[in-house]
Amino acid sequence: MLGGIYLDPEVTVLIVYYSHSDDLSRCLESLAQTRYTNFNVIIVSNGSVDRLENVISSHKTDFPLRIIRNQHNLGYPGGCNIGLKHVTSKYVVLLNQDTQVTPDWLSFLVATAESDPQIAAAQPKLLHLGDGNAFDYNGAAGGFLDLQAIPFLRGRVFESTENDLGQYDRTTDVFWASGASMFLRTHALREVGPLDETFFMHMDEIDLSWRLRLRGYRIVCDPSSVVFHKGGSDLDSYYYLKQRNNLILLLKNYGLKNAATAFLGRSVLDTASMLYYMRKNGNRSISTLRAYLWVLFNLRQVFNRRAIVQSCRTVPDDRIVASMAKTSVALQYFLMRRRLFLRLSGLPAPIASYIR
């Protein structure tokens, strides 16, 4: 700051809150240590009955903070969309309440975004809050998709999460940025439209990242920025939503030919998965079946949203496909026993592009 005028661009940190005030309290404590000074915080109380004023009053914060209340739980994307209506800053960060940031986390992300106006989204290196040596299950060091739109991460493939040994400390383009800490260029977000509230929770950040890519924007991970996330793994209670939402984003964002091809290939893989889990974990088989039934009975809704996305795209599918893994990650993981990101083949760039 010079003479009362900020030289650094303003950032809004947007937190959607539902419950677990202890998590939010620790998140605010860490935000108070942020060295980047030109930021404000908006907390969206998403149907919560907690008195957030009591939580906030116990903290000494130098940053502006505002609470917006929803009467009902609108889901994570719905809560974000309410908060985004009040954002006027150049950048906005969607930050989960169960994160704890490091002092320079925001400085690095701003510097990365300022280096190229085509960078619309970025994420930090996300480490597990309970074990700082392990990558976070939900974000790790940036997300990717294979041709069947199955997500995986630099640092986590399905259930196998790696320890952080500095192996992914290279800033690189990724396909999607994690919603646990998703740094966004506000005007690019306005350009592609709000988060899709159909998702309610899970995969909404992948959908948003894909839509940004369809407008020609870049998504990057800057591991110099570090955030710790409590998070969780692929719990059975969330498995249905992850399966359903993954099918929705595939059908929405691919071109028609690739959507049909990917959906067919995905159906084969999911059928094999249902048969596998039928003996081991019947709930997952039922969840997968429910996901397909939801898509079948809501095709009109899915294709209405697809029409909006496709009408706004400026990038052809061959460029999107070029940024995906060409070899099925599911087959590599379950049949070829490739548990580490470094061992995967068919990645969109040589492995040297992703490692330190």
What is the count of helical runs? 12
Principal-axis shape equals globular
N-C termini distance = 34 Å
Class from helix and strand fractions: alpha/beta
Tally of separate domains? 1
Give the uncertain stretches in residue-range form. Answer: 1-6
Number of strands: 14
Provide tags for this entry.
alpha/beta, ten-stranded mixed beta sheet, 356 residues
Task: Describe the protein's architecture and organization.
The protein is an alpha/beta fold and 356 residues long. The protein has one domain. It is built from twelve helices and 14 strands. The strands form three sheets. Strands 1, 2, 3, 4, 5, 6, 7, 12, 13 and 14 form a ten-stranded mixed β-sheet that branches. It has a two-stranded antiparallel sheet with strand order 8-9. A hairpin with a 5-residue loop joins strand 8 (143-145) and strand 9 (151-153). Helix 7 (236-253) packs antiparallel against helix 8 (256-280) and helix 8 packs antiparallel against helix 9. The model is unreliable at 1-6 (pLDDT under 50).
